[in-house]
Amino acid sequence: MADETIGVVGAGIVGLAVAREILRRRPGARVVVLEKEDRVAAHQTGHNSGVVHAGIYYKPGSLKATLCTRGGAMLREYCTDRKLPYDECGKLVVAVTEEDVVRMDALAARAGENIVPGLRRLDAAGIRELEPHATGLAALHSPHTAITDYVRIAESFADDIVAAGGEIRCGFPITGIGPGLDLGAGLTVDHLIICAGLQSDTVAGLAGAAPAPRIIPFRGEYMRVVPAKSTLVRGLIYPVPDPRYPFLGVHYTRRVNGDLEVGPNAVLATAREGYRRRDLSVRDLYATASWPGSWRMAARHWRTGVKEMYGSASKHAYMRAARRYVPEIGAGDVVRAGAGVRAQAVDRDGALVDDFRIDRLGPVTAIRNAPSPAATSCLAIAEHVVDSLRR
């Protein structure tokens, strides 16, 4: 790759990690990161929960499981070296029903295969010892689950890229890919790596990729706990997830700035970059509605969708589920906070794509699905992608 020009579409944390890794291994290459916004980390990176996952949930042997484990260790080392925020506040995955306990035990077995460090099972007394205001029948404690500031990490990656001779061009949307990987404005590249997040299917389509999977956007809304109650949770408290969905359910998240948030939910968004309820993109809505997988997904999961929409409309309904874990925090103790949008890939048959999906199209590499834990895994994803360029 020396003396070649490599373009990276997207200046989120994954795209920046990939560009940085190319320059680290191939200092003679010209690397140009192209970002349609006026800054890095403008979308998913800048609107996530800040959690560094330990690898509890992911199917053993999957890319998610493999890259989360390695990526988390790499991210910790990077944050330590750069003196960036990194707090191993720990996480409880709490079972509040007997059905939850059965699913939690299956989750523990999966986490064991993924070699999650320090994971242990707690009874009700053990829960109260770690989180005195939490309730549950049993829980898994992950002491090395951490929180960080992904925007600051992305900005640090950007500094690394520029220091190594790379370029970051903001305000550069990709509207077409011409013959010979001509990206317009006089820029032609030898290799193109698409890390476009919410627009990944659109940009991949410009490179000739198949339409599947399609990105379906889900807005995740957060509540912020008022200061008087924010000390009731010390770390992270999560429900036992439903294995049918890639979403983890509403949970309590400590932020590195000291805030305590509840969320996110998962509501179908009417715009891919729609962080407010009123945001609407006719183009994005058409892309969702015209995809056969959207209707097949809705047919399977409409009950959950209705429940999520009700929780979005009603703060009391939103907090009803959360109070099962921390009863002392109710609807009167939270205010509406920000929101993020998850780029959820959906196949034509309506299946929610769970694992990372990375396609190779000749000189183009397209990351088609990289939801959570992509931020945790970003440095390992970068290794994986750059390894593939040599094949």
Quick summary of this structure?
The chain is of the alpha/beta class and 391 residues long. The protein has 10 helices and 20 strands.
Question: Given the helix and strand composition, which structural class is it?
Answer: alpha/beta
CATH class of the largest domain: Alpha Beta
**What is the gyration radius calculated from CA atoms?**
21 Å
The percentage of residues in β strands lies in: 15-25%
Architecture per CATH nomenclature, i.e. the level-2 architecture of the largest domain: 3-Layer(bba) Sandwich
Order of helices and strands: EHEEHEEHEHEEHEEEEHEEEEEHHHEEEH
Shape: globular
Task: Give your account of this protein's structure.
The protein has two domains: 1-85 and 146-213 and 353-391, FAD/NAD(P)-binding domain; 214-225 and 257-352, no CATH class. Helices cover 34% and strands 24% of the residues. It is built from ten helices and 20 strands. The protein has 391 residues and is of the alpha/beta class. A six-stranded mixed β-sheet has the order 9-2-1-12-20-19. Helix 1 (13-25) packs parallel to helix 10, helix 2 (63-82) packs across helix 10 (374-389) and helix 8 (292-313) crosses helix 9. The protein has helices at 13-25, 63-82, 98-113, 124-130, 150-163, 200-206, 282-289, 292-313, 315-322, 374-389, and strands at 5-9, 30-35, 51-52, 86-87, 91-95, 120-123, 138-142, 146-148, 167-170, 182-184, 187-188, 191-194, 214-225, 236-239, 251-254, 260-263, 267-268, 334-346, 357-361, 364-369.
